[in-house]
Amino acid sequence: MWPWGHAAVGYLLYSLLARSSGRVPSSASVVALALGTQFPDLIDKPLGWTFGLLPAGRSLAHSLFALLAVSAVAVGLARRYGRPELGVAFGVGAVSHTFADGLYATVTGQYADLSYLAWPVLPAPVSEVEKSFLAHVVLLEFNWHFALELVLVALAAALWLRDGRPGLDLVESVLGVDGRAAEEPESGD
Ligand SMILES: [Zn+2]
Questions:
Q1: pTM for the complete prediction?
Q2: How far does the centroid of ligand 1 lie from the alpha carbon of residue 185, in Å?
């Protein structure tokens, strides 16, 4: 699954979880969630593909053993700072990423490709694609995977708008943009 697909799956899950307890996601938790949804690839792709320190682009940080441990540490740290929901958001994002990566293998019955979930107890799956970012980007085409991920992005975007666009204020403040000022109509002369 591509980064935007992971972001969408994570947001849909986290927002529905928050809504089930009568809340909407906070801005800070959406940032933690976004980081979590990309975390497994941010670790495994460079270490596996670029530096050759891991056996595959889905191994250490896609393993449920590692992700549950990292998520527990994230929740512990966040709780220490009085914001446990940030650790939960990170964990939901990271765990949703690794299950979403298994979606296509599950649908097509290629269950051996799910072995990364239990790495290193099970060996990392062997990819037929060269271990590089470029080799994967070149394979990007409009197929049912791509279409499904666009649908997920559209659903997540709709939910995010309904939730009040959490996280946008933080992005605007980092970029030095005042979104409210931009939305206000210009006053007359
Ligand atoms: Zn991944």
A1: 0.89
A2: 43
